Amino acid sequence: MKLNRLIYTLGLSLMLVSCSEDFLETDSTEFISRDRLDGISETDPSVQLATLRGIYSTMYLTGTGGTTGHDDFGQRGYDIFSDMLSTDMVLGAKIYGWYSQISDLQVTIDYTNNRNYMVWRYYYRVIYAANSVIDALGGTAVVPESDEAKLIMAQAKTMRAYAYFYLANFFAEEYNPTEEILPIYVAAVAENVALSSTEQVYQLILDDLNTSIEYFGEWERANLYEVDGMVARGLLSYVYSAMGEYQLAADNAQYVIDNGGFPLLTREELTTNGFNSVESPGWIWGVDITNQIGLDLISWWGQVDLFTYSYAWAGDPKIINDDLYNAIPEEDGRKGQFVDAYGDGQLWPLNKFFAPDRVVGGQRTIESDYLYMRIEEMYLLHAENAAKAGDEAAARASLKALMEERVPDASYVDALAGQALLDEIILQTRIELWGEGKSYLMMKRNRLTVTLASNHLTYPGQEVPFNDDRLTFDIPQSEIQNNPFIEFQ
């Protein structure tokens, strides 16, 4: 388990319009306190559904990592953290400093740094809320009687699995079944517990997702922000892939491809879609961000999009790794997603992520949507895992299906085999899913050594292996102080 090895004293960076970043007074084990269960009804499904909606809103609201930081805005915030750690996303300047310590690989070697707490607190908050719903239905081991209760249970267990999976990736250097990595809580009211092994954590994740898939059946959700059987299978593919269960990972990805009805993004749409709307037919999971939600400066769009009034536009661009960009062939439609906006050589994702009006600094209240999962991920996951399972023909078929919508001639895929095939799938995953928080998961499961970008502000060209201390978060100081079963190391 990765705990702290070195403590740094770091000054706070400059902050826009006198923004502040508060350190929490409450501890990270707050989610286990009994008084927060008041009002949960065992008989009123509307209460449980309201709690589910609260879980979903945790994924995009600000402050859900427990701070007032302008990098604290749910899942998409941690996607930026992970994209920078994987080196595919590069911080282009340090004017306001919200990502300076992530970019400089300092957060992850200092357990007192509050960003470790943000990540920990966010996912355990999701787990607490999911456990509240599960408890109200009778507990983890109970089989609900009604179809309505089963659907509620399925959503709660899928969200719990999602949270534990990300925790297992962020806080463990690698998949090692015997290593103790996380405390497991399967009830909202519980005492502090010791760290459980990777094997135990992943078994809970598998149990939750497989149960959820059974309960979901053919259920058709009303909103894309809700998880359903396709989302659960997509997550299950990621989980099996991390475990090295390649055939099972490939099978679940293929199921989503065959049964989800999600079309691939076409070559013509690569620079016009904007990845900004839940109306995109290839989105498997996402959320419709509306004016009423009230997101603005503190948001993923604010941190990444030039056409949104916030940090990227004001001076802290999030740009592509130059070496990755140079690996994209000129004829590949995705090359056009990245543009040198100001003639200084920095390549912004102007034609991949953009507020629809395309007015520089124009979007003040966020109405561009958040993407969590899309069908292209399943094609790439299937290709990767089929190749590892020895079915190279199936791997080539999935990769070629994607590449036929990316380049004029995808016939080169037919000749790929062995390591060359896997290397191509890894490269295409990095290109296709740039800025979507998936490269870090891919780096971990493939045990890659990454080369920090030639345009990295601090360590250009430095090689960092996947299990380097600097690429994995520390269990935060507050958790160590408040949980007597976790020792400082």
From TrEMBL:
Origin organism lineage: Bacteria, Pseudomonadati, Bacteroidota, Cytophagia, Cytophagales
Protein keywords: Cell outer membrane, Membrane, Signal
Gene Ontology annotations for the cellular component aspect, listed alphabetically: cell outer membrane
Domain SusD-like N-terminal: 106-217
InterPro entries xrefs: SusD-like_N (IPR033985), SusD_RagB_dom (IPR012944), TPR-like_helical_dom_sf (IPR011990)
Family of this protein: Belongs to the SusD family.
RagB/SusD domain: residues covered: 348-483
Major location (coarse): membrane
The species this protein was found in: Echinicola vietnamensis (strain DSM 17526 / LMG 23754 / KMM 6221)
Gene3D superfamilies associated with the record: 1.25.40.390
Keyword Lyase: no
Location of the protein in the cell: Cell outer membrane
Protein name: RagB/SusD family protein
Listed Pfam families: SusD-like_3 (PF14322), SusD_RagB (PF07980)
Cited PROSITE patterns: PROKAR_LIPOPROTEIN (PS51257)
